[in-house]
Write a sequence for this structure.
């Protein structure tokens, strides 16, 4: 949670308590992270969002929303290289239910977008839910200052800059340089330019990018986990069924939870450590209020 | 005498133009459909080539094999036997382009038709003989001059990319002017067309096509008249057709308009000099005749006189030239030893058989989802001109894609299912440690490993001790290649951040199709690939 949000919440909370002192008695505060396990990707998605207080907490009426899945690779959903299409579909539906005017689903993939959008199943799922699924369009790249500690500026698709709200929907995958690719690394898909050079300082780039794109919600797909041979896998034996999703506002905390699923501590993921040091989010699971549900 | 033009033939002309337009649209519709269709398999987009008896004949002779798909070519031959070179005037999309531009040049007074009597129309027959005699020596040159190959290749490699470029600039202007609501759907649409934007020989192949079109300013349908080997072949079949031009001598005022405006030098007037082998049944003569004197009554049987005016001497000479020329195509060292850069698309037959079958049409170049397949200039010797090769710096072979093998009209790329294709090795990648970021500077970079599509990955990362230029010892993860696992797809080379000359690159060695171009001694016999 950002400091400003925290102060805002404190203020709002104290007013609410003054008006309705009985509120505290219910003991129903919103958790930092919702971790939901279950058979159906769409059901656990709905459950996780409702555990966080419902989509209307993040999306207001008339909002333009950009949902950013990982559609990086020419792989099918079973291969777990791209975000689960059912999760995307459900999130788009929830956005519309919360009154969103327009929902866009896009990514800048490594393989040709015309293939990854189709073969990941995401384009069809998102369109069925009513979202626009634009291809990354080089004309819409804009060099912007990122105000990072390492990355000063980079080309970003304007879709990410000109939307009201962003929801980040990564998938949990192994990656041989950053160890894991989760939500914070997912922002490489919002960039153009020679992004392959970012790997020379990947952990710092990840943190700078995460601090720049301010998603209202981070939603980690751990329904299928690609635990080796990432980030694109290939064999079904590279995939482990975990049937879980994690939702939260604190994107560092969400990634921390993803690391937990892969049995990694926060020390092993350098970018988590850096992000925590920079005050971007919490990595200590003890300090987080985590609501776990199983359906 | 009553002067009146034929209404009937005017209508037939209009029908011809409609037919030409429809086939033209069909040709380009199928061409635009030649891209990733949203599923793994694509059907029948290459069907035009199967109706081409010239491609059928040369490929059958050159490869000494019969193809079931070429039964359609027999249909064209039968049609020509019965109705003459109808296909040239009513179907051929390249012919339609020539006719259209001839029309434009005439209207703009660049071209003034006149009565011509020369022997040039026979040139195409000699070209045909060169191609056929070449085929006897397994030298398949048909793709250079076959009208479908020429048209398809020119559009796939030059015209479409050029239009795409122009279109993209217009879209760019719209974005600059901030017309987002207009530009967004247009940009989205243009992406779904999947036009491959860059080709190494776009300028060369495009210029040749432009030249062929501009020749129409010199003579109407210059290509069809003098050059087209398919037209020549169909001309040979057309002698016995049932539609014979007849001039009613009572009506004819000998104005010569018919011969002047004849699009192919078929010479309608005088009647007994009309050549059915040159006539493409455009019906311009019968429509333009001021006295309605020209008719095409049904009259089976051969023409009265032997019409194709080939001298026996020249025929023998041409054949001899082909016989002597054929070996010259094979003197290149490329035919003796595999070329490092000649990475053929997956499914490519062994080089010799591949060259016998490839008709240089460019279907594979059009369908490739990454723009990787490029026309060869010199890498495959003279007979390999414009055959396909992968250039990883431009694009790479998409792992779960076998589209190029599905659209190849002659099976030069053997049709493969997607699972079969993933087993094919088209080359092997190598690391240039002098340029690789971890190997050279000790800095992290795993881009090639991350993109390697095979599982387990053919690019491994090993902790290596590197002395940096500053003398510091670093221990980065550096890439090494497992040549057994590498399939040569080239995505590593394509994505390598060392842009100008990638630090990882693919060469053709190890390709499954070749017995000789192999790296390691194969101790377990019989595991030399799928062929």
């Amino acid at each position: 949670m950002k400091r400003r949000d925290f102060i805002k919440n404190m203020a709002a909370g104290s007013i609410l308590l003054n008006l309705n002192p009985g509120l505290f008695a219910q003991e129903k505060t919103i958790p930092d992270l919702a971790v939901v396990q279950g058979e159906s990707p769409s059901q656990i998605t709905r459950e996780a969002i409702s555990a966080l207080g419902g989509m209307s907490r993040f999306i207001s009426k008339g909002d333009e929303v950009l949902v950013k899945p990982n559609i990086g690779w020419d792989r099918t959903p079973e291969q777990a290289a791209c975000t689960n299409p059912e999760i995307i579909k459900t999130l788009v539906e929830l956005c519309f239910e919360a009154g969103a005017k327009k929902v866009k689903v896009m990514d800048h993939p490594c393989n040709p977008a015309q293939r990854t959008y189709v073969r990941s199943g995401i384009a069809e799922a998102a369109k069925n839910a009513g979202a626009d699924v634009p291809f990354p369009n080089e004309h819409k790249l804009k060099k912007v200052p990122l105000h990072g500690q390492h990355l000063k500026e980079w080309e970003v698709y304007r879709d990410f800059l000109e939307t009201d709200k962003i929801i980040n929907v990564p998938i949990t995958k192994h990656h041989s340089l950053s160890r894991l690719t989760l939500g914070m690394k997912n922002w490489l898909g919002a960039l153009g330019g020679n992004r392959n050079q970012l790997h020379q300082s990947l952990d710092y780039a990840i943190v700078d990018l995460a601090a720049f794109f301010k998603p209202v919600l981070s939603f980690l797909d751990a329904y299928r986990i690609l635990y080796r041979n990432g980030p694109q896998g290939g064999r079904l034996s590279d995939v482990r069924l975990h049937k879980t999703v994690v939702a939260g506002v604190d994107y560092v905390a969400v990634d921390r939870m993803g690391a937990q699923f892969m049995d990694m501590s926060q020390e092993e993921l350098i970018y988590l450590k850096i992000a925590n040091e920079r005050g971007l989010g919490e990595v200590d699971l003890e300090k987080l209020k985590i609501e776990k549900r199983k359906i | 005498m009553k002067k009146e033009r034929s209404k009937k033939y005017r209508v037939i002309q209009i029908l011809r133009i409609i037919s030409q337009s429809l086939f033209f649209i069909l040709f380009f519709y199928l061409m635009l459909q030649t891209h990733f269709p949203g599923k793994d398999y694509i059907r029948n987009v290459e069907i035009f080539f199967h109706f081409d008896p010239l491609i059928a004949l040369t490929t059958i002779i050159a490869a000494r094999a019969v193809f079931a798909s070429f039964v359609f070519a027999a249909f064209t031959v039968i049609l020509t036997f019965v109705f003459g070179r109808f296909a040239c005037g009513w179907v051929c999309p390249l012919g339609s382009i020539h006719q259209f531009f001839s029309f434009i040049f005439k209207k703009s007074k660049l071209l003034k038709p006149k009565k011509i009597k020369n022997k040039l129309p026979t040139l195409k027959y000699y070209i045909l003989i060169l191609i056929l005699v070449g085929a006897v020596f397994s030298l398949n040159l048909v793709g250079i001059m076959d009208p479908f190959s020429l048209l398809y290749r020119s559009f796939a490699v030059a015209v479409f990319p050029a239009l795409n470029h122009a279109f993209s600039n217009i879209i760019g202007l719209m974005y600059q002017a901030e017309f987002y609501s207009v530009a967004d759907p247009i940009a989205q649409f243009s992406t779904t067309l999947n036009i491959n934007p860059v080709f190494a020989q776009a300028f060369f192949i495009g210029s040749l096509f432009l030249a062929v079109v501009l020749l129409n300013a010199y003579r109407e349908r210059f290509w069809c008249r003098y050059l087209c080997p398919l037209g020549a072949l169909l001309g040979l079949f057309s002698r016995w057709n049932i539609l014979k031009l007849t001039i009613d001598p009572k009506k004819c005022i000998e104005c010569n308009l018919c011969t002047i405006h004849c699009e192919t030098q078929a010479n309608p007037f005088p009647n007994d000099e009309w050549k059915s082998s040159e006539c493409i049944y455009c019906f311009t003569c019968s429509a333009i005749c001021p006295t309605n004197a020209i008719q095409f009554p049904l009259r089976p049987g051969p023409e009265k006189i032997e019409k194709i005016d080939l001298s026996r001497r020249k025929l023998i000479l041409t054949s001899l030239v082909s016989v002597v020329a054929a070996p010259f195509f094979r003197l290149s060292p490329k035919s003796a030893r595999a070329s490092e850069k000649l990475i053929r698309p997956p499914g490519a037959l062994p080089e010799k058989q591949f060259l016998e079958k490839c008709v240089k049409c460019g279907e594979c170049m059009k369908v490739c989802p990454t723009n990787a397949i490029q026309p060869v200039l010199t890498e495959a010797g003279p007979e390999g001109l414009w055959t396909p090769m992968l250039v990883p710096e431009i694009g790479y072979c998409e792992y779960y894609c076998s589209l190029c093998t599905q659209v190849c009209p002659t099976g030069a790329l053997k049709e493969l299912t997607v699972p079969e294709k993933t087993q094919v090795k088209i080359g092997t990648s190598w690391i240039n440690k002098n340029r690789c970021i971890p190997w050279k500077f000790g800095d992290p970079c795993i881009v090639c490993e991350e993109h390697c599509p095979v599982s387990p990955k053919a690019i491994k990362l090993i902790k290596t001790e590197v002395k940096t230029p500053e003398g510091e010892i670093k221990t980065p993860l550096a890439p090494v290649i497992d040549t057994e696992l590498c399939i040569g797809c080239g995505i590593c080379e394509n994505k390598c951040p060392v842009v100008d000359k990638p630090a990882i690159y693919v060469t053709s060695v190890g390709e499954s199709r070749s017995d000789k171009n192999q790296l390691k001694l194969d101790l377990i016999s019989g595991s030399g690939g799928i062929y």
Q: What stands out?
A: Chain B touches chain A through 40 residues (CB under 8 Å). The beta strands of chain B are 246-247, 294-295, 373-375, 388-390, 428-431, 459-463, 466-467, 473-474, 477-481, 504-507.
